[in-house]
């Protein structure tokens, strides 16, 4: 595979800092209050949710353009849950809520979202590794 772009970031853990190599991303990391942290910074799940939502929204736009559909008012919300598994393992579960214009509800919208799920790099990276639920709203 030929890399089109490589992002580089360094983090010092869940309670520290994450910085991109170009300095455009520089965030304080803290566990959420529900996990015993002070909640005064962001956390890996929020960062993953933001990245997945942005990437999936771009995939929806790309597929819609090829199908000559207008999705200018579409939005994607990613809900990323940290889940406890067996033997002390942790995992993620994702719900992607895709808001489409009213005229794209039903089969057309569902087909669009399913096709975007095949195109999105985050979806391709997570497929078969974590549960991802697609919800068309």
Give the secondary structure arrangement, pairings included:
Blueprint: E1 9-11, E2 16-20, E3 26-29, H1 44-66, E4 75-84, E5 90-99, H2 107-119, H3 121-126, E6 132-136
Parallel strand pairs: 5-6
Antiparallel strand pairs: 1-2, 2-3, 4-5
Helix pairs in contact: 1-2
Name given to the CATH architecture of the largest domain: 2-Layer Sandwich
**Structure classification:** alpha+beta
Number of domains: 2
Largest sheet: 3 strands, antiparallel
**Average of pLDDT:** 95
Report on this model:
The chain is built from 3 helices and 6 strands. The protein is about 30% helix and about 25% strand. The chain has about 140 residues and is an alpha+beta fold. The protein has helices at about 45-65, 105-120, 120-125, and strands spanning about 10, 15-20, 25-30, 75-85, 90-100, 130-135. A hairpin with a 5-residue loop joins strand 4 (about 75-85) and strand 5 (about 90-100). The strands form 2 sheets. It has a 3-stranded antiparallel sheet, with no helix packed on it. Strands 4-5-6 form a 3-stranded mixed sheet, covered by helices on one side.
């Amino acid at each position: 595979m030929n890399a089109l772009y490589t992002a580089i970031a360094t983090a010092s853990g869940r309670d520290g800092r994450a910085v991109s190599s170009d300095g455009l991303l520089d965030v304080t990391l803290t566990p959420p209050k529900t996990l015993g942290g002070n909640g005064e910074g962001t956390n890996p799940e929020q960062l993953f949710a933001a990245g997945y939502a942005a990437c999936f929204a771009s995939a929806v736009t790309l597929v819609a353009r090829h199908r000559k559909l207008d999705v200018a008012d579409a939005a994607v919300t990613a809900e990323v849950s940290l889940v406890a598994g067996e033997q002390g393992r942790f995992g993620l579960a994702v719900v992607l809520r895709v808001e489409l214009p009213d005229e794209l509800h039903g089969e057309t919208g569902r087909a669009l979202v399913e096709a975007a799920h095949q195109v999105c790099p985050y979806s391709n990276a997570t497929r078969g590794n974590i549960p991802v639920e697609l919800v068309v709203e």
